[in-house]
Design goal:
single chain, 223 residues, mainly alpha, two-stranded antiparallel ribbon, 12 helices, 67% helix, 4% strand, elongated
Amino acid sequence: TRGVATIFLPDFKHELESSAELLTRVNQLLLTLERFRRRFDSAVERLDRYEANGIATARHVVAVLQRMELMHRIGTRIELDTVGLGGQAEFVDLQYGDLLAGSGDVARLVMEDHLAEDADPPAVLERLASLPAAELADPREVAAVLGYSHLDAEVQPRGNRLLATVPRLPDQVRAALVAHFDDFDALIRAEVSSLVAVAGIGESRALQLRRLFDRALEFADSE
């Protein structure tokens, strides 16, 4: 007979799975997480492109945040299962940590760009996390949580996510840029002279921003 460890508590009995069984399930979950990471990255890339072209809709924002939440649910399941793996858990932790890396930051910046100004991003994330699986799979339900009336509603970013890619750009300068232009298209097409007019932006930084914006526009036109 196979050895089985069982935990007995008052009114509770739990049979522990073998490490082999756990590892098989965790590896399957890692493969699933890898697929969702590719879908998440594709959704982010699509949002990038459509934002720069001025044709993004709520559907594109929903796709990013929906996939982010699905990824984190899989990650939570992996975390729970790795508790029983002992010494093998460290390698699994590295794998799923790499697969989730940066997704939370991207989601936060997407919300900073697209949620209503009076929205509470942590509260929105909490509502997403509380959605039953069937509702999370429905883009219309996710759109309602994000405050959109329909999936084809036109959206325009504030520019936070694009500006977050600029090395060593202080948060207050990023906020000043967003407030100064108050329009993503105006920001991404701003001349160097207009960028220099923003507090905290010197000529070298303005040139750096202009190169970044040019690359974003080239990427948008590359498809």
